[in-house]
Amino acid sequence: MKYFFQPGRMSDLAWAELCSVVSNFAPGVVVKRLNGRIFFVDITSGTIDIIKIFQRLGGFIRVGEMIENLDLFLEYFNQKNITFGVSPDIYGQGNYIEVANEVKDFFKEKGVSSRYIITENTASVIHNNLIDDGFELLVLDLGKDMVLGRTLAVQDIEEYAVRDFDRPNIDKKMGMLPPKLARIMVNLLGMPDEGTVWDPFCGSGTILTEALTLGYSVLGSDIDKKAIRNSNANIEWTLERIKFNNQRYRTFIFDILDPDRAMIKTLSKTQIDGVAFEPFMGPPQRNIVKIGRAQELIMGVSDQLKAFVELTRGINLRGKKVVFVNPSYKSESGWVSLRLNQIIPKSWYRSFSNEKLELYWERPHSIIRRNILIYTVK
Ligand SMILES: C[S@@+](CC[C@H](N)C(=O)[O-])C[C@H]1O[C@@H](n2cnc3c(N)ncnc32)[C@H](O)[C@@H]1O
Prior knowledge:
The chain is built from eleven helices and 17 strands.
């Protein structure tokens, strides 16, 4: 069976996330990318739960199956009426209205009356209950051929909004990661379905709560007492909402720039399977910054990254992945970024370093771009 995955806005980052999750949960399955807007996997044998894989992902909007012929809709022939959706997200030259009318004619021939809704976004798929009570079509471009796809699941946008805005404690001044990005970062660690993730700049705990939701145990540390209180409250709230598999969590105060020796010793004896973090990037910036200010901000990030690398020498992270945000700031003279080659040891292996891939997360018109780096510690 052939499946398609539709990424959100950050398609390169989504691509890296999908490859990472598939290599772990469906080893041997190849993810094909014919263009930046839709990816395909072909599952020839075994019992791979494609919806479960999709539900782990933070960077995707839809997953679906490719339709070889319309007889797939046989199940609807005993119905009098059927409502289906057709997405205007077209990949290639196909005309989705034409396709929708052809499907309508097909049903008419079989004596079933049908109507279609143009599904402008995934919310309309959910609100019209199209997955359970009908179906949604997509016209997919396979390079030389055009084929139809049927949606199997869509991203639960409302659940992400609840996790983003309804958690008990947030701290906008310190900067918060969007939960979708936190989830992508945890997935990029490529860990099997168990293990412990450490976030040494945990803030309100977005990475920690997404990692718990994915089934991992977590360690969170931060210089700030209030951040630890916020993380604890958000973790407790999350644990009440998710199916909890006895994962463990521990949070503690820890200054990366002046690390407590006793704590380093404890960390060196603690099993850590992956580290994901966003360092402190300065107070939220609303306007384009002066070049001097941008340089000041990246120097702050540089100090934290250097301190983290130094710390890894005392903690056994060999062979483990580290995924972190390296911000770029929009200044009057263009984007200013920290060069990592002086900071990250040459021996650390960088994944997805292909120059053509732009692994970053950015809000429209934002003046901060979050570049996502993935390294394996040597
Ligand atoms: C950008 S926030 C992290 C946001 C977090 N991922 C979230 O979504 O809530 C950075 C955090 O780094 C912490 N921090 C700043 N300097 C630190 C240091 N020297 N050691 C450890 N944590 C530090 C801040 O207190 C802040 O909570």
